[in-house]
C-alpha cells in the first residue's frame, strides 16, 4: 500500500513540475522609473580628476527595489563606484513578471563619470 502511495506522489510531482521544464523567456531590461531618480551625485571625497565608467549588476526584487548590488567593472575610483552603488540602491525599477506575477531578476546598469558631474544610469 505504501509503495502505491509513494508511486502516486512521485507521478503527481513529475506532472506538476513539467511546466517548470519549459524554457524560461529571456528577461527584459528593467525599466528605471523617474520618480526614483537613478542619478548618482558626484562624491565630494572623489579626486577632482577622477573619471570612468562603473558597470553594476543588481538583483531587482518583486517590489522593484534592488536587494543586491555588485561591481562587474570598476571605474578605478572607489568613491565613484560607491556613489553609483548607493544611487542604484535608492532607485526603483519595474520588476520582471512571469505568468503575470512580479519576480526577482538580475539586471545590469552602467554609470559614466565625468569629473565633477553627476552620472545617470543607463543599460
Describe this entry's structure for a reader:
The chain has 123 residues and is of the alpha+beta class. It has one domain: TolA/TonB C-terminal domain. Helices cover 27% and strands 34% of the residues. It has helices at residues 2-21, 78-90; strands at residues 31-32, 39-40, 52-60, 66-73, 93-94, 96-98, 101-103, 105-113, 119-122. The strands form 3 sheets. It has a 5-stranded antiparallel β-sheet with strand order 2-9-8-3-4, with helices on one face. The termini are far apart. Mean pLDDT is 76; it is low at 1-31.
Give me some keywords for this one.
123 residues; TolA/TonB C-terminal domain; two-stranded antiparallel ribbon
Which strand-content bin applies to the residues?
25-35%
So how many helices? 2
Question: Would you list the SSEs in sequence order as H and E?
Answer: HEEEEHEEEEE
Strands, total number: 9
Describe the biggest sheet? 5 strands, antiparallel
For the record, the CATH architecture stands as: 2-Layer Sandwich
Widest sheet, order of strands: 2-9-8-3-4
Provide the helix percentage. Answer: 25-40%
Number of domains: 1
Q: What is the molecular shape?
A: elongated
Structural class: alpha+beta
The poorly predicted ranges are 1-31
Q: Which class in CATH terms?
A: Alpha Beta
Q: What distance lies between the first and last C-alpha atoms, to the nearest angstrom?
A: 58 Å
Overall pLDDT confidence: 76
CATH topology heading: TolA/TonB C-terminal domain
Radius of gyration, CA atoms, in whole angstroms: 21 Å
Amino acid at each position: 500500500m505504501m509503495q502505491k502511495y509513494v508511486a502516486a506522489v512521485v507521478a503527481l510531482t513529475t506532472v506538476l513540475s513539467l511546466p517548470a521544464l519549459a524554457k524560461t523567456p529571456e528577461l527584459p531590461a528593467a525599466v528605471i522609473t523617474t520618480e526614483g531618480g537613478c542619478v548618482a551625485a558626484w562624491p565630494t571625497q572623489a579626486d577632482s580628476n577622477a573619471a570612468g565608467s562603473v558597470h553594476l549588476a543588481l538583483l531587482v526584487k518583486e517590489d522593484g527595489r534592488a536587494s543586491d548590488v555588485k561591481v562587474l567593472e570598476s571605474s578605478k575610483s572607489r568613491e565613484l563606484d560607491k556613489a553609483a552603488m548607493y544611487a542604484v540602491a535608492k532607485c526603483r525599477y519595474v520588476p520582471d513578471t512571469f505568468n503575470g506575477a512580479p519576480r526577482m531578476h538580475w539586471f545590469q546598469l552602467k554609470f559614466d563619470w565625468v569629473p565633477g558631474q553627476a552620472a545617470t544610469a543607463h543599460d
